[in-house]
């Protein structure tokens, strides 16, 4: 099956009025992409595994993407890549969850290998996977860490507390020529707003 046929087959299996125009294919060597509503997430992944023509029996990976500032809006996107070892084709399944309450059904019962990926997405983005076994225990961050560091609104505290090493622009070195106006990286507040030099109001 071609990537387009794979994507249309899965879209047909999970079709309703919300998935009618949800298929895209990037090219001959790409995987077909099917966008599904959040409440159909686990069902679409199960259909990709159980349908005889698709037979996507290998879970490749799952990740989250913070769409803040993009044309897509302010939500989080969840992306799962699946592969069929029998038919040698794959499919990408995507859904969107709201930023203020990001949750979706866990797919660990469908693919046990998704457990690690769901824990990572929960820890880094705050996406909750309903029914995940093991209570989404911390995976990568130290105990007591607060926040979700892959969200675009997460404050990069180390950039505020200590100066960034090295000269990145002409004239930024110590004692050099005057530099251009320095621009803080995205997500980093000014020292007057946050950190040890913050102005108390």
Order of helices and strands: HEEHEEEEHEH
Classified by CATH, the class of the largest domain is Alpha Beta
SS-based structural class?
Answer: alpha/beta
Number of separate domains: 2
Shape: elongated
From the N-terminal CA to the C-terminal CA, the straight-line distance is 64 Å
Please tell me how large the radius of gyration is: 22 Å
Mean of the pLDDT scores?
A: 82
Number of helices: 4
CATH architecture of the largest domain: 2-Layer Sandwich
Task: Enumerate the spans where pLDDT stays under 50 for 5 or more consecutive residues.
Answer: none
Which sequence of strands runs across the widest sheet? 1-2-5-4-3
Helix content: 10-25%
Per CATH, what is the topology of the largest domain? Answer: Beta Polymerase, domain 2
Biggest sheet details: 5 strands, mixed
The fraction of residues in strands falls at 15-25%
Total number of strands? 7
Could you give me the name of the CATH homologous superfamily of the largest domain?
NADH:ubiquinone oxidoreductase Nqo5 subunit
């Amino acid at each position: 099956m071609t990537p387009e046929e794979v994507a249309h087959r899965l879209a047909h299996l999970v079709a309703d009025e919300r998935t009618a125009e949800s298929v895209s294919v990037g090219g001959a060597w790409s995987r077909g992409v099917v966008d599904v509503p959040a409440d159909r997430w686990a069902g679409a992944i199960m259909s990709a595994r159980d349908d005889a023509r698709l037979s996507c029996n290998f879970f490749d990976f799952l990740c989250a993407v913070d769409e803040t500032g993009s044309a897509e809006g302010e939500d989080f996107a969840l992306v799962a890549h699946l592969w069929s070892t029998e038919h040698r084709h794959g499919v990408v399944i995507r859904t969107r969850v709201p930023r203020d309450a990001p949750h979706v059904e866990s797919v660990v019962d469908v693919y046990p290998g998704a457990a690690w990926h769901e824990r990572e997405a929960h820890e880094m983005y705050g996406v909750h996977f309903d029914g995940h076994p093991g209570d989404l225990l911390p995976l990568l961050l130290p105990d007591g860490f607060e926040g979700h560091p892959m969200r675009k609104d997460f404050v990069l505290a180390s950039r505020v507390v200590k100066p960034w090493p090295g000269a990145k622009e002409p004239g930024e070195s110590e004692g050099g020529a005057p530099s251009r106006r320095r621009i803080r990286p995205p997500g980093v507040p000014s020292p007057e707003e946050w950190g040890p030099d913050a102005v108390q109001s």
